[in-house]
Amino acid sequence: MELPAALRAAVDRALEGVPLAELQRAADTLSSRYRAELRDGRLHLSDEMFANAYLATRLPATFAAVRASLGSAAELMPDFEPKSLLDVGAGPGTALWAASDCWPTIDSATMIEASQAIRKVGLALSAHSAVAHVDWRAADAAKSFEADKADLVTLAYVLDELSPAEGLALVERLWAATGGLLVVVEPGTPAGWRRMMAVRSRLIELGAHLAAPCPHSHACPIVEPDWCHFSRRVARSRLHRLTKRGEVPWEDEKYIFLAASRLPAETFRARVLAPARGGSGKILLKLCLENGSVEEKLLTKRDGDLFKAARRADWGDVL
Ligand SMILES: C[S@@+](CC[C@H](N)C(=O)[O-])C[C@H]1O[C@@H](n2cnc3c(N)ncnc32)[C@H](O)[C@@H]1O
Fold it and tell me: How many domains does the chain fold into?
């Protein structure tokens, strides 16, 4: 997945002239803080250099994950046409760009962000977005923030920076602010999945309808050490590659998400939970099924149309 051209150009402009060695140092520190899920009372994006490192190395991947999550929900909610967005822990405005790419109907957005450094970057980028009214607000979302109800509410890659209790309290508040759809996205690690399971249980208790990725609202059938997650291939720009000292022009971003709706979304029978395996004439798919079970299903040519659909199905697709 590539960034939208206007965002790519705005990011390139923002990073023009930033010394590579400084970017690399900041990216290394940022990456080790994220990997350790460090909660030491400091925001990860506490200054301009960390904000720049996020733009260079994380924005393309979180954009891909958020865009794919929104796309999965949109597929099952064809009549949903949001006009307003509320995004919390907005960073450089990733969800604004992903949401307006998915739903060009969005014409106003409220972006809540605690870090002054990344808010400044996000504000500058969003001037180039297609959304007419974008309101950036400084707030610690774990404490309190002011925001009207919005059709679409997003919380992407934020829960890992909050304590479990703060995270669930925030999700409850965001659900109360959701007019149509709430989408939560987290890294596709076992820890990210566990956090998402807690969010899932709480939203079901609150009466939410799960639009995606789950085909049911029964207990999650996945048992540790397995965990549910998806993946998107992300194109790396030259600067991204240099900053990460990477060889290949792409990386795979693993993520997990939950889309919770006020109205029931379209139902579906199964979601593909892993890359398909198989050889000629047969295919093995790991599926989450609408009856609440997870199953490895072997399909052969004898399964006719189902086999043809399975051959086309990708990890994360509805079958
Ligand atoms: C990993 S970044 C994700 C940014 C963006 N949502 C994305 O997906 O690219 C997490 C963001 O949440 C912000 N954040 C963390 N805790 C917060 C809080 N309590 N209130 C507001 N923002 C917070 C951080 O400053 C950071 O910008």
Answer: 2
